[in-house]
Amino acid sequence: MTHHFYSDTFSHDGKEYDLTKVRILTRDEKAFLLPIRDLIWIFKYNKPDENRVFHAKLRYPLLVAKDKVGRWTVVDGLHRLERYRRRGINVIPVKLVNDEILRLTRVIHK
């Protein structure tokens, strides 16, 4: 999962998506609990910004999706994930970004 610094989009499995639309479409989705161990592999590829970790609001569930090899990945919430990890919390609230939501929010460049 790669977030693009100057826009509200992210990349997932080589495609670009509109994060604002994803947030809107997942607003009414029910959160569920996911073991943090299923997500911390992400830190091998992404380094959270210390200031953003400090200010991360834990009242919002992370948005997660499955990647093409079946691993959970973070769509939105890397800094919250790191804050949970530092607090020693083992199970965290997440919302699923399913394939239909990804299909509806894909950015097509012309």
Lay out the secondary structure.
Blueprint: E1 2-3, E2 9-12, E3 15-18, H1 19-26, E4 32-35, H2 50-55, E5 62-66, E6 72-76, H3 78-86, E7 91-96, H4 99-105
Write up what this structure looks like:
By secondary structure, the protein is α+β, with helices and mostly antiparallel strands. It contains four helices and seven strands; from the N terminus they run βββαβαββαβα. Helices cover 27% and strands 27% of the residues. The protein has a four-stranded mixed beta sheet with strand order 4-7-5-6, sandwiched between helices. Mean pLDDT is 90; it is low at 2-6.
Could you say which structural class the secondary elements and strand pairing correspond to? alpha+beta
Q: What helical percentage do the residues reach?
A: 25-40%
Q: Which strand order do you get reading across the main beta sheet?
A: 4-7-5-6
Shape: globular
**Strand tally:** 7
β content, as a range? 25-35%
Question: How many helical elements?
Answer: 4
Order of helices and strands: EEEHEHEEHEH
